[in-house]
Amino acid sequence: MSAPIGFIRSNLDRFQEELFELLRIPSVSAKSEHDGDTRRTAQWLADALTKAGLKAEIHETPGHPIVVAEWRKAGPDAPTVLIYGHYDVQPVEPLELWSSPPFEPQVREGRIWGRGTADDKGQLFMHVKALEAYLADGHALPINVVVLLEGEEEVGSPNLVPFVKEHRDLLACDYVVISDSGMFAPGLPTLLFSLRGLAYFEVEVEGPATDLHSGAYGGAVPNPGLVLARMLDTLLDEQGRIAVEGFYDNVVDWDQETRDAIAALPWNREAFMKETGAEGLVGEEGYSTLERLWIRPSCDVNGILCGYTGQGAKTVLPSRAMAKVSFRLVPDQNPDRVEELFRAHMSKVAPPEVRVQVRALHGGRPWRASVGGKGFDAAGAALERAFHKKPVLTGEGGSIPIVVDFEEVLDAQALLVGFSLPGCNMHAPNEWLSVQNFQEGIEALAYLYEELAR
Amino acid sequence: MSAPIGFIRSNLDRFQEELFELLRIPSVSAKSEHDGDTRRTAQWLADALTKAGLKAEIHETPGHPIVVAEWRKAGPDAPTVLIYGHYDVQPVEPLELWSSPPFEPQVREGRIWGRGTADDKGQLFMHVKALEAYLADGHALPINVVVLLEGEEEVGSPNLVPFVKEHRDLLACDYVVISDSGMFAPGLPTLLFSLRGLAYFEVEVEGPATDLHSGAYGGAVPNPGLVLARMLDTLLDEQGRIAVEGFYDNVVDWDQETRDAIAALPWNREAFMKETGAEGLVGEEGYSTLERLWIRPSCDVNGILCGYTGQGAKTVLPSRAMAKVSFRLVPDQNPDRVEELFRAHMSKVAPPEVRVQVRALHGGRPWRASVGGKGFDAAGAALERAFHKKPVLTGEGGSIPIVVDFEEVLDAQALLVGFSLPGCNMHAPNEWLSVQNFQEGIEALAYLYEELAR
């Protein structure tokens, strides 16, 4: 057993206590009332990286701060690895569905429960501890490292790409390692071959100028709830395809080899249905569930608000109806193009007697990995050493839009190595991270630094 | 000028001050946190009726209390008139749209602003003052009176019909006078020939058992927001007709005379559109706007709630979506039958991969007046004396379900004489009552008691 691995194993309890401290800070980037907490989280991480042996600095942005930490003593021949993570978390509502409070982490059933355990505080913290394991007691890392932690991933990273472009020299690297994804199954280490992109909108329909009495006006005045429902109902056709004209123009048809590999994964329909709790599955005709999640685009309503939603029967004809609608994109779709198409579609289906506004809230490009090569092999080897099993290659339905930007701006190869598990409730109540993956993940990252240096 | 009219005119300032006291109590029947306020309102009215010279009593019900007050000294030959009103009010949300706080009444622009001014505290209070005008200083009323005020009209009057049935003797009467409706236009007194009924439902769609990450699951797991939109979109066809099978089976075709009378009313499309603030009007093909509002049924979405509706972009695949959906009914539709049809329709259009629940929240039968006869003529004469203009006959799009029950249980004739004006924002922010109608309405009611005694 190498020195870092020994250090990790003998310090696990302390690591977990420190992680709990980090998780307790409610760094919800979408809500301005948490701005102080988000800043506090950045400072906490800068301190933790400093204690781990790196030189850390907090950089201001127009939004939440960015933390950069460096250790560059591995010499000019060693590769430079940029470790990216995000310390902000999703909102926690609806609170009543959490079994334990989102910002009071607990261990139950071999899992650490709390907002940010899986996405992404828990995972970025594994890197901090893997780095510390090498640097403890004045030892060295086999690679040069620059850690880049942002606090705006959950709100579309508006300030990250400008920051990366302005700090190309500071961030110059050979590899970008990101741990913000999951493993295909417990004990099955996983490397990502693709990520979906995102185009997220808010649509608002206004009928009457104020809420009206539904008796006095119902039947003659346009009802924004009914109009919005009708407009949303135009988004998918009967075959589960997105019925926005031109939407599929840039969707790549994946090769049969990839589709065969997906079909060969140990996916269990019953387990998936149990995990979701749905009565049945849906999706685009002609594709398997995993294909629908990874290599095909999707459309979801993320929220709707209209009229009276409290207790009892209020007979109101509402003035407004709002829906949050998002599309997951696949190579080579572009969120800007999708925005144009979506706006055109909404204009087409909006009846003349209402006012409709479309706001683009968030966009991110899809990503396709350069499978193979030194970095990919190193990641595979590291995962195998930690988990004693060959990693599988999978897609990921979620989005990490910055991946594409990192590769382009820094001319580096991205490696996506994550440790959350299916059903971990990212973005939902009762988010969790496996205790075992927390430990083996730190070890895998320690191996990864070593493998990348070979 | 008769003594009561003189009393009314010389006490108007005091009447208005007392009305403000009544309006300040937030008697929102739909919200249990206001239960104390609702009870306080009942007590306030019992006291006011006692001071006016009646014998008042508060009756407990399983819900909010009922106030009954009597004055029966007009002798056996004088008719008995039951005056019905409701002292509860609609919820006030969204609060930010009120120009002045809903429970802090103000006079501006010749209007009294505040929740309950028009619906119905302001109007029932006119009766209290008209009664007081007769009984002041030991004088007498020309009719026997029983006043019946409930606190649950805005939540469907669940306890009123049982109460009326149990107290047939106490409530026995020749006429039921209700002032909870409006005038067709300023200065144009109005008698109602019909009311629409109501069938109000809450529909809940559940997809996954908990909120999920829309990236990790979107495209394969049923989205309750999209499903609900699709289901709501089946409710109306392209001709603006309600597409629920069997819905029109019991809808009466009104006679040409009524339709001609409606067409002859001084209705102004531009003014109506300005009043609503909508960009255009909608409705069932083949009918005018007033017909759509009065003699044809309608369907409205009163509220929708699904997923994340706060600030920013939360990429959630929501577990649930809820809509409040209501139908206004016309003679001879029945809300129980409509419930059956609606449930059958929802079952038919619900896809198998979601769980759907339909809850009936509120129902009320439509009403059609017995136009003509002594009571109707008396009401017409009273209105003409107060407003110096012949009243018009109109329908009313809203519902007062109890009207049908009163006529049936008490074998009495209902007279609907109301004084709110178009655009008075019943059930909406910025509800108001015309100051002039407040005065002339009290006088009209004083005349009505006299005319009914002739």
Quick tags:
homodimer, 454 residues, alpha+beta, Aminopeptidase, Alpha-Beta Plaits, 2 domains, six-stranded mixed β-sheet, four-stranded antiparallel β-sheet, 35% helix
Structure notes:
- Chain A has 454 residues and is of the alpha+beta class.
- Chain A has 15 helices and 18 strands.
- In chain A, the strands form 5 sheets. A 6-stranded mixed beta sheet of chain A has the order 1-2-6-3-7-17, sandwiched between helices.
- In chain A, helix 3 runs parallel beside helix 4 and helix 5 runs parallel beside helix 14.
- Chain A is globular and about 80 Å long.
- The interface between A and B is large, with 100 and 100 residues.
- Strand 11 of chain A pairs antiparallel with strand 11 of chain B, so a sheet runs across the interface.
Can you describe this structure in just a few lines?
2 copies of one chain form a homodimer. By secondary structure, chain A is an alpha+beta fold.
